[in-house]
Amino acid sequence: MDLATLRDTDVAALHAAADAYDGLRAALGQNLEDWRGGVDQPLAASGWAGPAADAATPSLALAAGELKAAQAEVGQLGKVLRAGADALVLARSELHRALEDARTAGMSVTEHGAVTWEPAPYADRHDPDHRSIGERTATALAARIATALARADAVDRALAARLRHYTARALDGTGLDPDSAARDRLDPGLGVPALLRLAVPPDDAPPTEVYAWWNGLPADEQQRLITDHPELVGNRDGIPAAARDRANRILLPRLLATYQGHPPPLSDRDRLRLEGFRRISARLAAAEGQDPPVLLLGIGEEGQGRAVLSFGDPDTARDVTSLVGGMGTELQRIGGGDADRARAVYDAARRADPTRSTASIAWLGYDAPLGLDVASRTAARAGADAYHRFLAGQRATHQGAPAHVTAQGHSYGSLVVGLAAQRPGGLPADDIVLVGSPGTGADHASDLGVGTDHVYVGAAAHDPVSWAPDPAALGPVARLPPNARWYGTDPASAEYGAHRFAVADGPLGPATHSSYWDDGPGGDHASIDNIGRIVSGHGDRITTEHRR
Asked: How many other C-beta atoms are found inside a 10 Å radius of the C-beta of residue 208?
């Protein structure tokens, strides 16, 4: 695909072809109904029997099946053509924005995509800074142009391959075979999402790249993507929160309809997903028109289910915090208990400093371990990658001055946060809060990259998880430090070096492990008040207690 072809492409012809195939699909559907009403049903009611009837029945069934297969086939062609057109529009928009930015910068673009600029004034010609700025700008623009052309070329080749595929099926008759047509529609390599993804940043693209790509799209293209292809928008880190929320509010009813339509009995995992989607839907409905606004920043059926719910807009809030839940955190908790916790943190931060705006997020972007799986760090490592990317996306999309960001981890979620913080480059956060933590995979708070003065720990005296020993300590000849916990040094210990904020001791038993958000405002041992002070940027005002 060369620059002139993409720049001047009239995608309307592809959309018109897609419309024509849609019309043909509707006509075939009417033909099928006419066949059933005019042939199948009258013959079935006629009582026709005998050798002739026995010979005719298979042929009649075959004709009906071929009509149905043809309807599905041309319908798929319409979808593929429309997806190809949409993908080319995205690539063309990317190119046009780069060309416009080049013109604004006073630069020219050749037909081969090279970027040039007029010689600098004499006084600037030997200024290294002047040359460097021009070279960097030209290089960046050339890269954007090359990316747009490469994406358009990939779409063009993939669309051509799909059209050849359907042409071959029409010629050899497999397109009229109902079973073959059904299998073909289920092939993920031929689906609409696979074609569209060729025109958007790849899944591993940094959130900053995703954000730049999104901002380069015209407003009408952004809205069309949200409306027509919300699956490409709702869960992409680097796309603004408001756009993700609109896309996910389109996706959520679809997921509900899919799981409600599954034939019984549902598997345990599907049943939990369905209940989770219902709880989140109910939570959103209850919050409609309320303050703060509730945004659905993520929803999906991957693994045990994915969801991200925010109280307040993280793109505009001065203080942004997100809570990672631990063992047994299921999808329905994002519409239930974890949402309650996020709202409690929001309220506590606003009490701590009413002059600052807040966004408090319940984040489920990984498969929290269930049962004995908690002994492994595998889930935490996957969660750490996803959480790190999520916070990087929050940084990329935030408007104005950078937000004050607090990462929170509860129980096994504190290991997720700890591992994310120990990744190269650190965690995109200013403060870290760990509650009910059995360890973070780190020996000292300084390993978390935000500085020991910005790591805060809440550990109730009667929380059994915060006392969970290193498994090696259970052996008959174990000689481990007394502060060795399941996943490393006890974060509440003096050896770890973090601030330990005051919390209520809690009752004896496992309930204390989940009580850090439940003690209500007021008093020296109000855990939620201390969390609110940290989130609002006032960690120096926490009430403390001695480290272990």
From this structure: 14
Question: Distance between CA atoms of 1 and 5, rounded to whole angstroms?
Answer: 7
**pLDDT at residue number 397:** 98
The tokens for 26 are 């509707």
Are 393 and 358 in contact by the 8 Å Cβ rule? The answer is no
pLDDT band at 332; cut points 50, 70, 90: very high
Q: Report the DSSP beta bridge partners of residue 306.
A: 300
Cα–Cα distance for residue pair 320/393, rounded to 1 Å: 12
545/492 Cα distance (integer angstroms): 10
CATH topology of domain 244-541: Rossmann fold (3.40.50)
Q: How many CB atoms lie within 10 A of CB 192?
A: 18
Say if CB 84 and CB 155 are below 8 A apart: yes
Report which residue type is found at 198. L
Residue-range domain boundaries for the chain: 3-199, 244-541
The set of residues, in sequence order, having a beta carbon less than 8 Å from that of 172 and lying 6+ positions away, is: none
- In this structure, what token pair is assigned to residue 156? 């063009």
For residue 333, which phi and psi values (nearest 5 degrees)?
-70, -25
Residue 120 has pLDDT above 70, yes or no: no
- Answer yes or no: are the C-beta atoms of 502 and 476 closer than 8 Å: no
Which long-range CB contacts under 8 A does 23-29 form with residues at least 24 apart? 24/74, 24/78, 25/71, 25/74, 25/75, 25/78, 28/67, 28/70, 28/71, 28/74, 29/71
- Could you give the dihedral angle defined by the CA atoms of residues 380, 240, 402 and 457, in that order, rounded to the nearest 10 degrees? -30
What is residue 486's three-state secondary structure? coil
Model confidence pLDDT, tens digit, residues 286-304 = 999 999 999 999 999 999 9
Cα–Cα distance, 478 to 202 (Å, whole number): 48
Neighbours of 229 (CB within 10 A): 21
Across 151-172, b (16+ Cβ under 10 Å) vs e yields bbbbbbebbeebeebbeebeee
pTM: 0.88
Residue 16, Cβ neighbours under 10 Å: how many? 12
